[in-house]
Amino acid sequence: MADPRILDIELDERTIIRRNEDIERERKVAIFDLLEENFFKPEGLDGPFRIRLRIEDNRLAIDIKDESGELLETVRLGLARFKRPIRDYFAVCESYFAAVRAGSHMGLETIDMARRGIHNDASELLRECLDGKVELDFDTARRLFTLICVLHIK
Known about the structure:
Layout: E1 6-11, H1 21-36, E2 40-42, E3 49-56, E4 59-65, E5 71-78, H2 83-102, H3 108-130, E6 134-136, H4 138-151
Parallel strand pairs: 1-3
Antiparallel strand pairs: 2-6, 3-4, 4-5
């Protein structure tokens, strides 16, 4: 019976050099939320799936494995289209986290709206790039975009 969901997700830790507390918290929340509820259906495959995200040659590689961990397929996406959204997302997140740490609530709502807007746009871009390869819902795309950003921290 088909079960179009991710039951486990792993990030290639070799890609990530360092993370601060804010980013680590974002990573944990994204993984928790993703595993709680998601829709992930690779073309022609039945789930549930274990996936591993990694960066190889400036491309996102999504290793799709079956329940037992056997590799079924690797989907690769060029990351050039994501360069600006990732950069913008990091910049807005830095402003957001700095305002939260400083206890400055002035403009926090505006910064958060900008952060959500960038995140939403990038999530739609991810869905477009995966069209015909992997079907996923908007919330799953949002959480995957967060994890893609984590992979880019240098």
